[in-house]
Structure formats: C-alpha cells, structure tokens
Write a structure and sequence with these properties.
globular; binds zinc ion; 8-stranded mixed β-sheet; 347 residues; 7-stranded mixed β-sheet; 21% strand
C-alpha cells in the first residue's frame, strides 16, 4: 500500500502546485512513452543500482532530501551535494551513504556540512571526482579522499561529459539573517522546535550531530567565494541549473543569463520559511526556469518541514510561466531533452 499512497501524494501535490498548460495529443503520447521507461518508474536511484534511462534523450532527476539530487543522462550519474547521513531526527531519505556505488561526479554547491558531509565517502566508494569550491578540499582530504579526486572551481570553468556540458557559476550564500529583525531566525527556530514538542538532543545525539557537522567547512569566506552553481546542458540544449543557497543574485549569475534565454529545470533552495521566499523568487526570476524543484525545506518532524505551497504560490505570481514541483524523496522525474516532455514516476 505504501508505495501507492506515496505516488498518489506526489500526483496530488503536483496537480495542486503545477501550472498545467494545455497539452496537445502528441505531447501526451511522448509523456506516456517517457513514463514507461523503468528508470522513470523506479524509486531506486541509479547511484545505488536502479535502472538507467533507455532513451539517450531522457534525463532523470531525483530529489534525495535537503539539496541532494541525482541526474542521470546517457550513462553518466551526477550527484549534486552529498548530505545523506543527516543530523539526528531528520526524515530518512531511504538511502544511506554506504548504498551509493555508482557515480560519475559529485558537484558540491557549497562546502558547509549540510551540502558535503558524505562527499568523501561517496567519492571513495564510487571513484567519482568531486567538484566544488577550494574550501571543500581540506574537508575531503580529512575524509581520506585522494587529491586527484577533487577538482576545485571558482566559477567560470566548463566541464565536459558525454553529451553534457557543465558550467560552474559563482553564486552567493544567503543573507536572510540580515533581512529580518536581529535574532529572528533563532527565535523562529526555537518556537517551531517547541511547537514540535521536541526534547533537546540527548548526549549521544549531540555527539552524532557534531561528528556530521565536522565534515564541512566553516570558513566565513564561503559566503562570497564558496557558493558555486552548476548549469548542465544536456544533448542539443536542455538546461538544468543547480543552486543550493539563495543568496543575492551575483554578477556572474546575471552574466550567464545574458547568454541564454532561461533554463528548463532549476533546483533551488527554500530556507528559513517565510523569510526565504523573496530570495528564492529572485533566483526564479533570474534563471527563468520552466520547472522548479525546491529543496532545503525538509526539516525534522512536521513543524520544521516548510510547506512548499507559500513559496510555490509566490513563484507563480512572480513568474507565471514557471511550474513548481513538490515530489517525494527518490521519485523519478523524467524529461525528454529533445521534446521537453515530462513524466513523474508512479512506482
Ligand atoms: Zn550554507
């Protein structure tokens, strides 16, 4: 029963949040063919042994909790961020770091622990190269990763994979704390935690959290020089943009957008509840995505998991052509990079 219920929830949320455009019959046929690919049905990510897409035009996008994603295209498995073993009481994603056996590359959006704590382990298990800002290098070395498996980027680099080009673009860390009254975010967090009836961490939980937090960098310079967005261009021009902190829009992001009209898919972060909506909307109006996935909003329990609805509705008002998806962990969302048809898995 459970998988069926999960699929139904996805369908309902998508129906509720998506801006559905009138679809012609051929588009419907393309969507059906896409949806029949086992890779577009399975809840098992390709990185832990799930099926690869059959059609060379299909890219599979999966949200793996927080701002973790998997992109699969023409035999390449790209992992975006790597924070699977999360601090205590987070919802289980359904995979643990030891499960990850296949990856081509791991792209780190910025080297705070909640974006890279499992990158060293995953890269060692898979042989994947980790790409990220230089701050990540020390953390990965401490985690036992050989230097040759890390590529430092600062924005402006272009990486090539079969059928795929990836551009690194300098972003910015969020400055939401400066846009609300002093101490507001801490008070908000404490109030939500109290409303969630959560007891403080036990000693064992505190230790566990500290060990996870140590697998990231706390360098203050990350705010301005450590946040890297990645623009994937698949096949003849299907664009997927990954950003994992909603900072003020940078000159590099604007310069990128002068070279392209918009992106097909963006994975964007929704943090700090209400206060995080304006910077999120700024990223949407900058990147002009047809489809947005939201991440970073899935805190523990129910009180600390921000509903996507207010953010999605703000996006619709600001960018009526953008569709916001709200999918469950591991649900495959497939896009045909040539026809731009989309199919959401119903395993
Ligand atoms: Zn951060």
């Amino acid at each position: 029963m459970r998988p069926r219920l999960a699929a139904l929830t996805v369908a309902v949320l998508v129906a509720r949040l998506a801006l559905v455009s009138a679809s012609a019959a051929p588009a419907q046929g393309a969507r059906e063919a896409l949806g029949q690919d086992p890779a577009c049905q399975a809840l098992t990510p390709a990185s832990i042994g799930g099926p690869l897409p059959r059609d060379p035009e299909t890219v599979v996008v999966r949200w793996l909790g927080h701002t973790n994603y998997e992109l699969v295209y023409r035999g390449s498995i790209f992992l975006l961020d790597a924070y699977y073993d999360r601090v205590p009481r987070n919802h289980a994603i359904g995979i643990v770091p030891a499960d990850v056996r296949k990856a081509t590359a791991v792209f780190i959006g910025h080297p705070h622990f909640d974006h890279m704590s499992d990158a060293a382990a995953v890269a060692q298990q898979t042989g994947a190269v980790v790409i990220g800002a230089a701050f990540a290098g020390d953390v990965l070395a401490k985690g036992g990763l050989a230097a040759r498996q890390f590529t430092a980027v600062r924005g402006g680099e272009v990486l090539q994979y079969p059928g795929t080009t990836v551009q690194a673009v300098l972003g910015r860390h969020n400055v939401i704390a400066t846009t609300v009254p002093e101490g507001f975010l801490d008070r908000q967090q404490a109030a939500l935690q109290a409303a969630a009836l959560q007891a403080p961490y036990s000693d064992a939980e505190t230790k566990q959290a500290e060990a996870i937090r140590a697998r990231g960098s706390r360098d203050p310079a990350i705010a301005t020089t450590g946040v890297i967005n990645y623009l994937f261009t698949f096949g003849s021009g299907f664009r997927v943009l990954f950003a994992d902190s909603p900072g003020p829009v940078t000159a590099a992001q604007r310069a990128l957008m002068e070279t392209i009209p918009g992106v097909d898919v963006a994975m964007l972060p929704y943090v700090n509840f209400e206060a995080g909506i304006p910077p999120l909307v700024d990223l949407v109006t900058t990147f002009k995505p047809s489809t947005v996935f939201l991440g970073h909003h899935d805190g523990p329990g129910a009180m600390l998991w921000a509903s996507n609805y207010p953010a999605a509705y703000a996006i619709r008002r600001a960018a009526p052509a953008t569709r916001t998806l709200d999918v469950l962990y591991r649900t495959p969302v497939c896009f045909n990079t040539a026809t731009r048809a989309m199919a959401i898995g119903r395993p």
